[in-house]
Amino acid sequence: MNSGQWTGKVGFILASAGAAIGLGAIWKMPYVTGQSGGGAFFLIFVLLTLLIGLPMLLSEYIIGRNTQKEAVTAYKILSPDKPVWSWIGKLGVIGCFLLLSFYSVVGGWIFVYSGASLTGSIIDPNVNPGDFFNYVIGTPWVTLVGLALFTLVNVIIISLGVQNGIEKANKFMMPLLFILFIILVVRALTLEGAAEGLKFFLWPDFSNTTGESILYALGQSFFALAVGFSCLVTYSSYLKKDVSLPQSAGSVVILNIFVSLLAGLAIFPVVFTFGMEPAEGPGLLFIVLPAAFSQLGFGEVFLAMFLILFLFATLTSSFSMYEIIVAALIEKLKISRVKLTAILGVIVFIASIPSALTYSVLSDVSIFGRNIFDTTDFFVSNMILPIGNLLIAIFIIHVMKKELVRDELLQGSAMGIGYYKLYRTLMTYVVPVVIVIVLAFSLMSY
Questions:
Q1: How far apart (Å, rounded) are the C-alpha atoms in residues 409 and 293?
Q2: CATH fold of 9-445, please?
Q3: What is the C-alpha to C-alpha distance for residues 127 and 117, in angstroms, rounded to an integer?
Q4: Is the alpha carbon torsion for 188, 192, 197, 202 positive or negative?
Q5: pLDDT in tens, 368-411
Q6: At what angle are helices 245-273 and 402-410 packed, to 10 degrees?
Q7: pTM to 2 decimal places
Q8: H helices of 294-379, where?
C-alpha cells in the first residue's frame, strides 16, 4: 500500500478528528462558553456545528478524495480553465503557515506546563498560578525552548509520513485523550459544586443570549472543525474510494462535539466548586484550573493528566497544518519528505519568534492597536479562515461539476439522493450567508 494513504477508515477519522480537536475545542470553547452564558451558547454551538460545520467538512472531503491530490493541485484539476481557483489551496497553505506561527507558541506553553506539572512545580503553596503563567510567557528562553520542543515533535511525526507518522500518532494520542478526559470528568463530577457547574454548562438559559453570543457560536461552529484552510482536502486525498464520506464526516463532528462536552464537564464543576470565575477568558486553563486543582486531593496528578491531553490535542491539530504545507511543496520542490519537513520546521520556528516574544522583549510593539500575537491570531482566525470557507462554499456549488459532487458524496454510502439535495441546499443558501455574517461581524469588531 502507498504510504501516502490511510490504512483504513478508522485511521482517517482519528486523523480528521485530531485535526479538528485542538485549542478550539479544549481551550477556546470552555472560556467562550463561560463568557457567553453557558448552556444556551453550547446548545447553539452544537446546532450550528451540524448545520454549518458538517456541510463544510463534507465539502473539503469531496474535493480531496475526488482528485486524490493535495489542496493546491486539487482545485487546479477541478477548474482547469480557471486556474485562479487554485488560490483557495494556496490561501490554505499561507493561512496554515501563519496559524502555526502563533499556534506553535501556545503549544510551547503547554509543553512547558506539561513538564512542570510532572515535577509538581505548578501546584506548589509558594507558587501563584498567575505569576507562573506570566513567567512562562514573559521569559524569552522558556518560551523559545517550549516552541522548539513543540516544533521538533511535529517535524519528527510529519517526516515519518501519512501512515507511519500522522496515522500512528493519532491512533495512540486520540484514544488516550478520550481516556484521560473521561477520568477527569468522573473526578470533576464527584466534587461538591459539580451540580452548579453542570447547571451552568448544560441548562440552556436564553435570558442572557445576545446577538453577539450567537455570532460567536456561528464562528466557533466551523472554526472548531478545522475547515477553511483546506487541510482536510489534503487529508481526504489519502482516502480510499469505498469509504463513506457522510459517515466519516458525521463521526468527526460527533467526536468534536463530544470533546467540547467533555471539556465543559471537566472544567466547570471544578471552577464552581472552588468559587472561580467561569468567564475568566483565555487564562481559564493556565491560571484558574491550576489554582483549582491545587485544592484537590492528588491535584498534581489530575492537572498533569489534563495538560498532557491538552498537549496531545494541540499536536494532532498542528500535524494537519504541517501536512498541507508539506504535501503542497513536496512535488513542486522534488526533495524528500524528511528534508522538506526539517526545513519547514526551522522556518516555522523562526517565523514564530515574534509571537513567542510578544509578552517579553517585544511587548511594546503594537500593530493596529494589538500586540504581535493577537494581530496574527485575528488576521488568521477572523479574516483568512472565513474567507477560505466562503471560497470553498462558492467553489463546491458554482465551479465543481454537480455530478462529481453528487457521486463523490454518495459513493460508498448508504445515503440516498435526498441527503445530497439537503447538502446542496445548505451549501447554496445557508452556509455562505452565515459565513458572510461572521466575516462582517469580525471586521466590524476590529
A1: 46
A2: Hydantoin permease (1.10.4160)
A3: 12
A4: positive
A5: 888 998 888 888 877 888 899 999 999 999 999 999 999 999 98
A6: 70
A7: 0.89
A8: 299-333, 337-356, 372-379
